[in-house]
Amino acid sequence: MFISTIRSLTIRGARLSHTEATASIPQPRGNIKEVEDFLKAIGRGCDEFAGKFETWDSLFTTNSRTMRQDFGIPTKQRKYILSWRELYKNGQKPYSISLPSPKKK
């Protein structure tokens, strides 16, 4: 009984600390001053969705489901925005990564 309670509390603590780490919002830096600058810098037409995010904080706190259902952002662009969001949190300067050209048959 006691061991299961400790395990339960440990798991809850780990989940809580994971959630807090994910919710961190970096400050704009360098040439990136607002949402539109960030989405232009990462490319792939993501800047067309700049109006969907009201603030810098909303860009870093909006989850994938909300981006899909409420904002109508297509899957590929949504995943690209989410991946660049994490890279930016880790200090990476945003740049456009071009899509690979399709293979010739």
The count of strands amounts to 0
Radius of gyration: 18 Å
* Strand content range: under 5%
Low-pLDDT sequence parts: none
The number of helical elements comes to: 5
Mean pLDDT: 86
Instruction: Summarize the amount of helix as a percent range.
Output: 40-55%
Element-by-element helix/strand order: HHHHH
**Biggest sheet character:** none
Shape: extended
Derived from helix and strand composition plus strand pairing, the structural class reads: mainly alpha
Note the gap between the termini: 63 Å
Subcellular location: Mitochondrion
Family: Belongs to the mitochondrion-specific ribosomal protein mS41 family.
Keywords: Mitochondrion
Main location: mitochondrion
Describe the fold and architecture.
It is found in: Mitochondrion. By secondary structure, the chain is mainly α. Helices cover 53% and strands 0% of the residues. It has a domain at 32-96. It is built from 5 helices and no strands.
Question: Helices, strands, pairings?
Answer:
Elements: H1 2-22, H2 35-42, H3 56-61, H4 64-69, H5 75-89
Question: What's a concise summary of this model?
Answer:
The protein has 105 residues and is mostly helical.
Please give a handful of descriptors for the protein shown.
mainly alpha; single chain; 105 residues; extended
